[in-house]
Every structure is written in structure tokens, then in C-alpha cells.
Design a protein that fits this description.
Layout (H helix, E strand, L loop, with lengths): L4 E9 L3 H12 L4 E4 L14 E3 L1 H7 L7 H6 L9 E9 L5 E10 L2 H14 L3 E3 L4 E7 L4 E6 L2 E10 L6 H7 L10 E10 L6 E4 L8 E8 L2 E7 L9 H11 L3 E11 L8 E2 L2 E3 L15 H21 L4 H28 L3 H11 L4 H6 L9
Parallel strand pairs: 1-2, 1-9, 2-6, 4-11, 9-16
Antiparallel strand pairs: 3-5, 4-5, 7-8, 8-9, 10-13, 10-14, 11-12, 12-13, 15-16
Helix pairs in contact: 1-4, 1-7, 7-8
Bound molecules: flavin-adenine dinucleotide.
Length: about 375
């Protein structure tokens, strides 16, 4: 005898920043929202470099957000989450020469950050069920509805949010490998929590240390940091973790623990709205392809998806407004960032050529533009 199907107005798959922001915004508008999260503890294990943008960085990068009071308030994170200010970023060339830019961000523990966001969604009225993984989607012809089969019960809903991260579980279950719905160019990343003499700044290292990618040191306090490597799949000889250990050893940093994950670096999926399902955050491929940052886009897209559902119910506007709004706000920066990444893939072949190109681009602002997701300089 199959378990009964529990029907909810909105189901959100995943309690990352995208899912929690979306659920909070929906619950505040009076909708019935259930978040299903496969992990036992939200945010654990953390999969992040843990650089979290302030609102200044967000409005400086994306369009049409200045007057969005809900998002502006959402980005006012409590002091207890902000372990270390990240006012500057330094980009190191293979020779050790560096270029420095301003940044408006902070380092935090992603575990605490994700937990805080999920708590806010619950306080707003959303229900959160952990230990509940979406496993299958079955179409029920009798009701004309899809049934979400999870590790703990069966569900149906009026609206479904795919906030399941880089592997886009809803898109994958419905459409397999179809790139229209699946984020592409999944880049493997490994990081370590370290102790030792760490910089004040967010440091990025380019060249053979991380072929077609970069290594980072993100300080989290006076003697702790998150140190990681993201490398285009298949570009590194040997194991990414071994390279990270060597990188840390060379800097005399003691490794306390490891983490890692996949970052979708192929740009936005071609379709973010599939019937009454809306893909948000990494599941929609909204990570910056040139730097791997995705927290702010996850929150923004989660909020926009919620607003599209509310407007659909109240005003009858189409759900496709969601995708249009995401592209209007985030599209240009994501496109620039993708171009920069593709230029890196095409030209950064070995330390000599990487150094030469960056020595030309650095003094004329090319590296800064790349990191800030402005239009790349087409000097090559
Ligand atoms: C190593 C690494 C370093 C990074 N560093 C940074 C950084 O410093 N700054 C930055 O801005 N971005 C960074 N990113 C990117 C950033 O982590 C993501 O863009 C962001 O977490 C996306 O949020 P999300 O809510 O879309 O997805 P996620 O945070 O991935 O959340 C998805 C949630 O869905 C759950 N889930 C997945 N499948 C199912 C299922 N079948 N059923 C139920 N639940 C499910 C997961 O358990 C998870 O909780 C990094 C990513 C990685 C991997």
C-alpha cells in the first residue's frame, strides 16, 4: 500500500541560500511552504570558500536592485556571522606579482550562515523537513499532478522550486542530461580549513597552481582561513586534494579539515521555468563562471521566484516573468563572467602565457574587470 500523498501549495527542494530566501519571501506573503532538505543539519557539510557579499557588492555587480527593500534588508546579516571583513582582493600572477582591488564582503562559517537563513524562513512560517531527499518524480495521470517521491513520504504541490544546488535534481529527474535544464561545466573544487599565518586580504592565485581555474585563500580570522582550489575538470594531473595539500604545505598552513563540491561554471540554464517549476540559484546555473561566487545570485533568484509566484496568484502574471527578471538583473554580469572564463580556458595555457597576458591586462584594469564581472577587454 503506497503512502498517502501530502499536498502543499509550494514545495522547495533544498535549504541552501536560494531555497531559504525563496521560502521566507513566500511564507511572508501568506503562502503555505514546505522545504525538503536531504541533509540532517542544514548547511552541513559546508561546500564553500565562505566569502559572503555585502549589499554594496551586490548592487555594484547586478542591475535594478537599488530599490529592492526586501533584498536590501535580507543582506543585513547579523554581526555574529561576520568573522572577518574582506575589504580587498589580491590576484597573484604565476611570478608572484599581484594586483589589488576593493571588495565589500565578509568571511563567515557557511554552516552558521545557511542555518541562520533557514531559521529565518521557518520563523516566517515555512515548514522545514530535514533528512528528506527527493528521489523520484512520478506523473499521476488520475490527478494530472506530479508526485514527489522522497526518502520520507510522497508529496504534490501547486508550485515546485528547484533549489537543490549545482546538480539540479528536479531538472535531472525530469529531463535527464538535457542541457536546457541542467547547469553545465561542473568544476570540481576542494578546500581546507587551515591554521597559520594567513593574509588580511582575499587572495587569488592564477597559473599552474590551478590550471584553468584558481586557488584561493580567504581569511576567516587572525590565524585561520579557507584555502581552496577550483580546476577545470580533467586539467590537473593527479588528484585535486593532493595539489591542495602541497599548496598549503608550501605556505606553511596546517590543514584542519577538508571539504569540496561542484560549481556549475557554464552560465545560466536555457530555461529556468518548466510549467509550475522554477529553478533558482545553482540549480539554474547562476554562479559567476569566472570566480565561482553564487551566494548572492542564489538569494536574489530565490526572492524573484517567490515574487513571481505571488504575482501569478494575485495578478495572474505569467511565471515566465521570473526568468525575465533574473536575466534583466543578473544576466549581463553572468554573461561577462562567462566570456572571461572562456577567454581563460582558451588562452591560459601554462605559466608563461598566463603571466604574459595578465601583465598586459593588469595595468589597464583587465584583471579587475574580470573579477568584478565587467565586460572583458578584448585585446587578444
Ligand atoms: C567549494 C566551493 C566554494 C564556493 N565558494 C563560494 C564563495 O566563497 N562565495 C560564494 O558566493 N559562492 C561560493 N560558492 C558557490 C555557492 O556555494 C553556491 O553558489 C550557493 O551555495 C548556491 O546556493 P543554492 O541554494 O542554489 O544551492 P546549495 O547551497 O548547494 O543548496 C542546495 C541544497 O539542496 C539540498 N539538496 C540537494 N539535492 C536534494 C534532494 N534531492 N532532496 C532534498 N534536498 C536536496 C542540498 O543538501 C543543499 O542543502 C562555492 C561553491 C563551492 C562548491
Amino acid at each position: 500500500m503506497p503512502t498517502p500523498v501530502e499536498h502543499r501549495q509550494v514545495i522547495v527542494i533544498g535549504a541552501g541560500p536560494a531555497g531559504s530566501a525563496c521560502a521566507q519571501r513566500l511564507a511572508e506573503s501568506g503562502l503555505d511552504v514546505l522545504i525538503l532538505e536531504r541533509r540532517t543539519i542544514v548547511g552541513n557539510p559546508a561546500q564553500c570558500g565562505e566569502c559572503i557579499p555585502h549589499w554594496g557588492e551586490v548592487v555594484g555587480t547586478f542591475k535594478h536592485l537599488d530599490d529592492h527593500s526586501w533584498l536590501k534588508t535580507y543582506f543585513e546579516f547579523p554581526q555574529r556571522l561576520q568573522l572577518h571583513r574582506l575589504d580587498n582582493m589580491r590576484v597573484f600572477l604565476p611570478s608572484g606579482k599581484s594586483y589589488e582591488f576593493e571588495l565589500d564582503a565578509f568571511a563567515g562559517h557557511r554552516l552558521q550562515f545557511d542555518g541562520y537563513l533557514a531559521d529565518k524562513a521557518v520563523q516566517a512560517g515555512a515548514e522545514l523537513r530535514v533528512n528528506t531527499a527527493l528521489k523520484r518524480i512520478q506523473h499521476q495521470s488520475k490527478t494530472g499532478r506530479d508526485v514527489l517521491v522522497t526518502s520520507d513520504g510522497r508529496f504534490s504541490c501547486d508550485f515546485l522550486i528547484d533549489a537543490s544546488g549545482s546538480l539540479a535534481h528536479v531538472g535531472r529527474l525530469r529531463h535527464g542530461q538535457d542541457p536546457v535544464y541542467r547547469p553545465e561545466d561542473q568544476v570540481p573544487t576542494t578546500y581546507a580549513q587551515v591554521r597559520g599565518k594567513v593574509p588580511e586580504t582575499f587572495d587569488v592565485f592564477l597559473g599552474s597552481v590551478a590550471p584553468n581555474g584558481y586557488a584561493w585563500i580567504i581569511p576567516k580570522g587572525p590565524d585561520t582561513a579557507n584555502v581552496g582550489l577550483g580546476v577545470r575538470a580533467g586539467m590537473l594531473k593527479g588528484n585535486v586534494k593532493e595539489h591542495l595539500i602541497k599548496f598549503c604545505d608550501d605556505l606553511n598552513l596546517e590543514i584542519l579539515s577538508f571539504g569540496g563540491g561542484w560549481i556549475p561554471m557554464g552560465g545560466p540554464v536555457k530555461r529556468m521555468v518548466d510549467g509550475t517549476t522554477l529553478a533558482v540559484g545553482d540549480a539554474a546555473g547562476l554562479v559567476m563562471p569566472s570566480n565561482g561566487g553564487g551566494i548572492s545570485q542564489a538569494i536574489i533568484s530565490g526572492c524573484f521566484a517567490a515574487e513571481a509566484i505571488v504575482n501569478h496568484l494575485e495578478l495572474g502574471s505569467p511565471l515566465s516573468d521570473y526568468e525575465a527578471k533574473v536575466r534583466a538583473s543578473l544576466g549581463k554580469a553572468l554573461k561577462n563572467s562567462l566570456r572571461t572564463k572562456n577567454m581563460g580556458y582558451a588562452f591560459f595555457r601554462g605559466d608563461f602565457i598566463t603571466e604574459t597576458i595578465l601583465r598586459i591586462l593588469g595595468p589597464i584594469g583587465g584583471i579587475k574587470r574580470a573579477m568584478e564581472c565587467d565586460r572583458p577587454l578584448w585585446i587578444l
